[in-house]
Amino acid sequence: MRRAAAWLRWYVTELTGENAYARHVARVREVDPSAPVPSRRAFERERVERRYGDPRNGGGVCC
Q1: InterPro entries under this entry (predicted)?
Q2: List of E strands, 1-63
């Protein structure tokens, strides 16, 4: 039962993108431990801009 709950939690966090920031921080620390790590808010903003475009510059439409 505990294993199933752990798998379900992992699946949901992967599906929703919750683990993306943790993976990003780990990757930055692995490449250069002294490099600055963006805040979660900055990371999420950049992630959305990469995906959908920057709405401040006329982007924001994905299709």
Answers
A1: Sel_put
A2: none
pTM over 0.85: no
Contact 23, 40 (CB under 8 A): no
How far apart, in whole angstroms, are the C-alpha atoms of residue 17 and residue 51?
Answer: 13
Q: Which residues of 18-34 are buried (b: 16+ CB within 10 A; e: fewer)?
A: eeebeebeeeeeeeeee
Q: What is the CA radius of gyration of the chain?
A: 15
7 token code pair: 């798998």
pLDDT at 63 over 60: no
* Cα angle 41, 57, 16; round to 5: 35
| Tens-digit pLDDT profile for residues 9-21 | 999 988 888 889 9
